[in-house]
Design goal:
seven-stranded antiparallel sheet; two-stranded antiparallel ribbon; alpha+beta; 7 helices; about 30% strand; about 220 residues
Length: about 220
């Protein structure tokens, strides 16, 4: 019985020590830069560039208002440099395609050849626009809570916009053994919700960086 009990306990502890999988923008936190650029939209753009399919490049880069061969070539050159820097270990911030329907913009941070931070911005539209499904802070928070349980910390703080209007901005944090999830609300007109998934090393790195004053507080 003691052996069985030990096996059960060891299994539980082993499961707890395993890092959870955090995905955002179609990518897994911690994945290699090589893997990142070999799949998803980054791979589609690379393939279109290699095939000199400038029409597809302009579409994938969302440069559809004034598409041109020159613009497509310039975009391909920037993509090539970004991939070289990320895979060589250089620290790099890379803008993803995001998701137009949910009004989401993605930014990925690489360091040491791996994806260390996924930053997703959800614009909060007050108007109902056909074809768009913006997500509120409450909806996004409920989704995170359902996936990862109650947050380690949840609170609100007052913020002022440029006109002096006061809002309560909600915040929540899920602290893991290997990673951290933050959800940050920016309420008011042209508001947004930001979700950040990052490695614990990246989180601690940002915590040590000097903070700039918030002009809206």
């Amino acid at each position: 019985m003691s052996v069985v009990g030990c096996l059960i306990l060891c299994t539980v502890l082993s499961a707890q020590e395993q890092p959870r999988e955090l995905r955002g923008g179609g990518h897994l936190l911690g994945e290699s830069a090589e893997q990142f650029f070999s799949e998803g939209s980054a791979a589609d753009i690379s393939r279109a560039c290699q095939e000199k399919d400038w029409k597809s490049v302009n579409h994938l880069s969302k440069n559809v208002d004034h598409p041109s061969k020159t613009d497509a070539k310039d975009y391909c050159a920037k993509e090539k440099i970004a991939k070289q820097q990320a895979t060589s270990g250089t620290r790099l911030e890379y803008e993803g395609r995001g998701d137009e329907q949910t009004m989401r913009a993605d930014t990925f941070t690489f360091d040491g050849g791996h994806l260390v931070k996924i930053d997703m911005f959800y614009a909060a539209s007050i108007a109902n626009v056909e074809g768009y499904r913006p997500k509120s802070f409450a909806e996004l928070f409920d989704g995170l809570r359902e996936a990862y349980g109650p947050p380690s910390k949840s609170y609100s703080e007052p913020v002022l916009n440029a006109y002096g209007v006061k809002y309560d901005a909600h915040r929540a944090l899920w602290m893991g053994d290997h990673d951290v999830i933050n959800i940050i609300e920016q309420p008011g007109e042209n508001g947004r919700t930001e979700i950040i998934a990052e490695t614990l090393v990246e989180y601690n790195r940002a915590a040590k960086a000097p903070k700039s004053a918030n002009p809206l507080r």
